[in-house]
Amino acid sequence: MPELPEVEALRDFLDDRLVGKEIARVLPVAISVLKTYDPPLGALDGARVTGIARHGKFLDIATEGPAGTLHLLAHLARAGWLQWKDVLPSGPPRPGKGPLALRVALTGGDGFDLTEAGTTKRLAVHLVRAPEDVPGVARLGPDPLADDFDLAAFTALLSGERRQLKGALRDQSLIAGIGNAYSDEILHAAKMSPFKPTQNLTPDETATLYTALRTTLAEAVERSHGLAAGKLKAEKKSGLRVHGRTGEPCPVCGDTIREVSFSDSSLQYCPTCQTGGKPLADRRLSKLLK
Fold first, then answer.
1. What gap in Å lies between CA 65 and CA 72, rounded to an integer?
2. Burial class (CB in 10 A: 0-12, 13-18, 19+), 176
3. Which of 47, 88, 235, 287 could form a disulfide with 281 if both were Cys (CB 3.0 to 4.6 A apart)?
4. How far is Cα of residue 241 from the mean position of the Cα atoms in its chain?
5. What number is the average pLDDT over the span 136-164?
6. Confidence at residue 264, expressed as pLDDT on a 0 to 100 scale
7. Is the pLDDT of residue 289 over 50?
8. Distance between CA 205 and CA 195 in Å, rounded?
9. DSSP, residue by residue, 74-139
10. Radius of gyration of the chain (CA)
11. What does pLDDT average to over the chain?
């Protein structure tokens, strides 16, 4: 799933290629992709791209055209991606053929496709007059890489929480942009169990977690900076230390990375670095083996 670092890299990638260009047409291909109907996608015909922004995991393409200021927002969900094409195919895309979900064609003949692998379709596109018109954007918490997201702000966010760290970090209404992969990476860097209760954090532990969060995300953004969209997935995977590396040695201590499975996802962690050498129980038991 694309998370804050990858979406930020896509924002940077599109900023160099889209701003100032004119949209010829936006073509929805998958029936499930478009989540709004007013204004219609046709309102973007002839609009000029004025800026690219990111809101958590949402990519925001701002435009100005005959219909006024409009924002095309995309959430790539678990299996979505953006594929830039210097020359788009000349023929119209065929619905139901392959992973193509939506195409944005520019008047110069270039543009991009939004694709989604698999059978579970969650990629979402919204055309709105303001980003906050999208419910998922309106409920977002602060951006963890914002200049004003300091230790005091992070401490205040966690002060009223009573749940496990893994869930808190992934809650988009608490902190925007962190998903399954980078929450694993942050907790590994902080040397904390994913099941540690937020209310049990000491001030020093809160500071350690804050530093791990900022450093992990900033380093991931830096690694992705300047990469073409097609290379971002490989960069993300290569930069992960524990997530998706079950059975491999921990790069810090050499212990075997373990996994806890959920109904539709899993987490990875290092017992030596994070849980005092004790394996975590199956998540369905919600317990730490003792």
1. 13
2. buried
3. 287
4. 18
5. 96
6. 76
7. no
8. 14
9. EE-TTTEEEEEESS--SSPPPTTSSSEEEEEEETTS-EEEEEE-SS----EEEEESSGGGSHHHHT
10. 20
11. 92
* Structure token digits, residue 282: 């199956």
Residue 91 confidence (pLDDT) above 90: no
Q: In what order do the strands lie in the sheet with 68-75?
A: 48-55, 58-65, 68-75, 124-128
What confidence tens digit (pLDDT) does each residue in 48-88 have?
999 999 999 999 999 999 999 999 999 999 889 999 999 99
Task: Provide mean pLDDT across the span 221-240.
Answer: 79
Name 290's Cβ contacts closer than 8 Å, sequence gap at least 6: 278
Q: Residue 231: what pLDDT?
A: 74
Amino acid symbol at 75: H
- Its pTM stands at 0.92
Q: Is 187 in contact with 240 (CB distance < 8 Å)? A: no
In a 3-state reduction of DSSP, which class is residue 68?
strand
Closest-CA residue to 137 (of 235, 241, 35): 35
CA 27 to chain centre: 24
Find out whether 237 and 244 touch, Cβ atoms under 8 Å. yes
The CB density around residue 40, as the number of other CB atoms within 10 Å, is 13
Rounded Cα distance between 77 and 84, Å, is: 18
